[in-house]
Amino acid sequence: MMGTLAVVLAGKKIRTFEHLYRAEVTGDIEDVEGVLKITRIKVHYFLKVPEEKWQDANEALNNYIQLCPAAQSVIDSIDISHELSLEPMPE
After folding, report:
1. Cα–Cα distance list, 17 to 51, 66, 75, 84 (Å)
2. Minimal CA–CA distance to 58: which of 15, 5, 22?
3. Do the beta carbons of residue 2 and residue 23 sit within 8 Å?
4. pLDDT for position 89
5. To pair with 28 at 20 to 30 A between CA atoms, which of 37, 39, 61, 76?
6. Are residues 82 and 65 in contact, defined by beta-carbon separation less than 8 angstroms?
7. Distance (Å, rounded) from C-alpha 72 to C-alpha 26?
8. Which residue would you say has higher pLDDT here, 73 or 90?
9. Over the stretch 20-69, which tens digit does the pLDDT of each residue have?
């Protein structure tokens, strides 16, 4: 998922070098009828980008999931949520 978002961001001329872009991922595992299953994945992205690119970054977050093979493979069985925290960075 992080890689797919990086590709969409790159298409908007937003760099995702390691010191600019990271994610924290958590999830929930629950007993579903006696079987442990991953039921939720929460991804919190952090991105340093010039403020004039914030709208582009938010658009990328809102659209990348449809292009992500990993997310599309499990989206019907695992609840996926994501958010993006932006930090200003001079150009």
Report:
1. 17, 23, 27, 16
2. 5
3. yes
4. 87
5. 61
6. yes
7. 18
8. 73
9. 999 999 999 999 999 999 999 999 999 999 999 999 999 999 999 999 99
Q: What is the pLDDT of residue 74?
A: 95
Give the rounded distance of the alpha carbon of 65 from its chain centre.
8
CA distances from 3 to 8, 10, 45, 54, 85 (A): 9, 10, 12, 19, 17
Q: For residue 46, count CB atoms less than 10 angstroms from its CB and return exposed for 0-12, middle for 13-18, buried for 19 or more.
A: middle
Question: What's the pLDDT at 37?
Answer: 96
Judged against a pLDDT cut of 80, whether residue 90 lies above it is answered with no
Alpha carbon distance 10, 68 (integer Å): 15
Residue 91 has pLDDT above 80, yes or no: no
DSSP state of 6: H
